[in-house]
Fold this sequence. Notes:
By secondary structure, the protein is α/β, with parallel strands linked by helices. 27% of the residues lie in helices and 25% in strands.
Amino acid sequence: MKKLAVIAGITAASYFITKEIQTATNTFVIDEKDIELETLSQKHDGLRIAHLSDIHNQFFFKSDEDYAFAVDKTFRSNLAESLSKRNPDIIVISGDLFDKRRPHIGQGLEFLSELSTIAPVYVVSGNHDKTTIDGKESLRDLTHEKLVETSVHPLDNSFEFLDKDLALIGIEDPLHTNEHDWNEGLTELVSRVREKGAQTIILLSHRPERFYSYAQNAIDLSLCGHAHGGQVQAPLLGVLFAPHQGYFPHYTDGVYTLINPANSAGPKLSHMHLSRGIGSTNLEFRFLSQAHASILTLRTAHLTKE
Length: 306
């Protein structure tokens, strides 16, 4: 009887693990959140942003042989359809569009082109996008012109005004860039849009662990990825590890808020939204961290006067 109980337990655990891997890896959830920004003018109240991250070119393969697990062929079309039904005003992708282990760039670009028929698409690079292929060009350099051809807006170290008082800025992933230069580049970018009249600033950046720098620059809302929500979580313990944060990371997914540490011009509070992402890397699966996208509705904060 004890042996049967052990076998039954192992079988049940194996079934749960396999089922959860398939669910977390091959299905997605889209959540909706309201985020209040104190500098947001009333005319922009209700702006809807679809936030995706860390696609890693995962669901765009020519054959099953390219992937260790069975990939749902409808994932791509289902995701695009689900986003379209939610009527976003813009779509942003906070890095790791591609992955050098999955070199079928064409299929990934097709997906981005499909997204661009829903709403304008803005992207920044992640660390995987800046890795080189065969020691030559990086994926970012290989795809820059092609992104523009698909009506996608690359925003590395640049900006676009969504309106005269609302700026969307992007900073490249700091891979191969020293921290001082990267921070100076971000500060300069913020200064430029403020000089041009930006009242509210939204940042696209891959790295959540640099949230303090974003708050220090009085950025209203930062949209990040990279952590994958841990990608593989442990029952009861949650997220064990995230890149560039180490074990038991602080930033995993959801909304975080910091007080503007510089007390400079801009908002008193700086917010960050961190996406768990769509794809996976290194380990070819997710566990207790389902693929994820968000619809963020911006709201004008109603502040209580002191």
